[in-house]
């Protein structure tokens, strides 16, 4: 039997590659006759570049601006004129200790620097994975890094969403010249607009450390950003209302202004990984993520994998750290069974600390079920 292992990361515990490796070890230990194929996946957030590298793309290393302005060492994946960049790898929320100050100051500038690096290297198609951002700046930092000029007080305009309340003018004439010949693909699982009660500040600001006052100020900054941009781009308000504009603290808005097309991140990653070729003939697909819950049903990797596997006639089971889905709900999502670490270890802290060995036990359990 051949089993395709296509999990996402267990956030805060294991990368997708490590999850697949531990599952493979457990499966083969219980059934040495099994053939396993490891294919880590992602949904556009953290792990997207890792999945592209696992699919055979080249790693490109560089230093760029981190979420609070500090230099960080980061990477993206490239293959001739194609590149995959990941916001979480350069301006990610995991790089800060979220509080009121970081929520106000965090910038997307580093993402623009990475995109610019890929453009300079010759990329004409760039996939931008946008999950896991620290910033709520509407993509202003990203656009500034790509050549946009933002004006505010006489002392200049600092980076960050809070500073956008002082924005007075935007000049887009200096944008990177290669952008005109490039195609951007916005890969994510969030369809929020930029502004309003369902927008970037209101919904995701609190996750980034923003209290009620900071959320209000960030919302005001984003609204000012749109109003001032509308002087240079008459369609700015229309773009701000589009699905996905509120993704990644509004980086979705910035990418859409640059002509990006918005696609579910897991679909993009599965294409990059040539999932259709790898799943052909697989007797079983094992996917998963750290927490399998109702949110998983809306664009997350496990359900995307299950749907793609079903199209090729392969059944799918899932592994996770914990789950709140009923068996019926899981089956409706295309998952024949769900195996959680909490099934073999009730202590959640130990599940996080010892996820690898516990996943091997789950792998052995799945092998026994075969």
From TrEMBL:
Q: What's a Gene Ontology MF term here? A: kinase activity
Tell me the InterPro entries matching this sequence.
Glyc_kinase_flavodox-like_fold, Glycerate_kinase, Glycerate_kinase_RE-like, Glycerate_kinase_sf
Name the source's superkingdom. Answer: Bacteria
Q: Name one Pfam family in it.
A: Gly_kinase
Sorted alphabetically, the keyword list is:
Kinase, Transferase
Where does the record locate the signal sequence feature? none
Belongs to which family?
Belongs to the glycerate kinase type-1 family.
- Protein's recorded name: Glycerate kinase
Q: Which organism encodes this protein?
A: Georgenia deserti
């Amino acid at each position: 039997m051949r089993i395709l292992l296509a999990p996402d990361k267990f956030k805060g515990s294991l990368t997708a590659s490590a999850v697949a490796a531990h599952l493979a070890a457990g499966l083969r230990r219980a059934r040495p006759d099994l053939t396993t194929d490891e294919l880590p996946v992602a949904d556009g957030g953290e792990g997207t570049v890792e999945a592209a590298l696992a699919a055979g793309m080249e790693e490109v290393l560089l230093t760029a601006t981190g979420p609070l302005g500090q230099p960080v060492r980061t990477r993206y994946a490239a293959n001739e004129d194609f590149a995959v960049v990941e916001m979480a790898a350069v301006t990610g929320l995991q790089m800060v200790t979220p509080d009121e100050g970081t929520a106000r100051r965090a910038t997307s500038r580093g993402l623009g620097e990475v995109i610019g690096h890929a453009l300079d290297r010759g990329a004409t198609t760039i996939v931008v994975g946008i999950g896991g951002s620290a910033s709520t700046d509407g993509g202003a930092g990203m656009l500034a890094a790509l050549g946009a000029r933002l004006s505010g007080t006489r002392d200049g305009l600092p980076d960050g969403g809070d500073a956008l309340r002082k924005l007075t003018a935007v000049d887009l004439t200096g944008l990177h010249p290669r952008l005109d010949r490039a195609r951007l693909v916005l890969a994510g699982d969030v369809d929020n607009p930029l502004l309003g009660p369902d927008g970037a500040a209101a919904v995701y600001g609190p996750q980034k450390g923003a209290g009620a006052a900071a959320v209000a100020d960030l919302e005001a900054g984003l609204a000012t950003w749109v109003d001032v941009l509308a002087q240079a781009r008459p369609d700015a308000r229309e773009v701000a209302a589009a699905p996905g504009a509120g993704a990644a603290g509004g980086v979705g808005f910035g990418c859409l202004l640059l002509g990006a097309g918005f696609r579910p991140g897991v679909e993009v990653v599965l294409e990059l990984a040539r999932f259709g070729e790898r799943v052909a003939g697989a007797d079983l697909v094992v996917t998963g993520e750290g927490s399998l819950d109702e949110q998983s049903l809306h664009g997350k990797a496990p359900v995307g994998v299950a749907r793609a596997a079903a199209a090729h006639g392969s059944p799918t089971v899932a592994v996770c750290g914990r789950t709140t889905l009923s068996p019926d709900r899981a089956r409706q999502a295309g998952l024949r069974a769900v195996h959680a670490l909490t099934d073999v270890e009730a202590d959640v802290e130990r599940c996080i600390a010892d996820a690898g060995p516990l996943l091997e036990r789950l792998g052995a359990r799945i092998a026994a079920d075969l």
